Every structure is written in structure tokens, then in C-alpha cells.
Amino acid sequence: MSVTAAQKVTTFLMFEGAAEEAMTFYTSLFDDAEVVAVERYGPDEPGPEGSVRHAIFAIAGQQLMCIDSHVHHQFGFTPAISLYVQCENEAEIDRLYAALVEKGEPLMPLGSYGFSAKFGWVNDRFGVSWQLTLPA
């Protein structure tokens, strides 16, 4: 009998030099968030020494991965894929939206759009898209 690990889908964010800054920012926004593991590039490796080769962090029990790509790419993040956060109260959605939109770009300002009590969509300073909702 063969034992294999259960398949798991994990969000993977590729940055070009901002992985640690983004991960630190994201984990600072949520009470139940933490950096789980960080592997860094060492000397004589392809990425800049000390940058993130691979990291795992958790927000609200959901693990995400991130890296600093040492290769420049002609693409970045797109709002077609976003992190969707169901907030517990109005204070939380207001706080998260304000933090994420700072140096970012609002896609849908906080408001009532008919499908939730309050909703906002933003591309943060790193280009990652977030949808924040307050259930009715």
C-alpha cells in the first residue's frame, strides 16, 4: 500500500524583491497571522543574497507562499485573481481597506453594492488584489 500526501491548493505570490516586505505587511494586518517559514538565497545562489527564495505565511488559517523571483518578468499580478476576505465587523473592513489602499489603487471604493452590507476591492502597493466584504 502506497501512502501519498493529500493534494492541497495553496496561493503562491511571486514578487521581484518585495516578498518579505509584502509578507510582513500582510501578517501585520490580521490578528491570526504568522510567518511560518522563510528560506533565503545565500551567497553564490541565483537570487540576491538574503532575499526570499521561498516563504510560507498564514492568514486566518489559510497558508500562502511567496518568493522573490531573481528573473524579471513582463507580467505582474492581475485583479482577475484576488484574495477574498470576509470581515467580521465594520471596523475591521474599514481598517483593512484603509491599510491595503494606502499606496495602492482602489478598484471599488467601500460601499454597499447590493450583495453585501459593505464591500471594497483594492490593488495593494505590491499589486496584489483584495476583495473585502462584510456579510449582510
From TrEMBL:
InterPro entries for the chain: 3_dmu_93_MTrfase, Glyas_Bleomycin-R_OHBP_Dase, PhnB-like
Pfam families reported in the protein's UniProt record: 3-dmu-9_3-mt (PF06983)
Residue span(s) of domain PhnB-like: 7-133
PANTHER family with a match to the protein in the record: PHNB-LIKE DOMAIN-CONTAINING PROTEIN, PROTEIN YJDN-RELATED
Name this polypeptide is given: VOC family protein
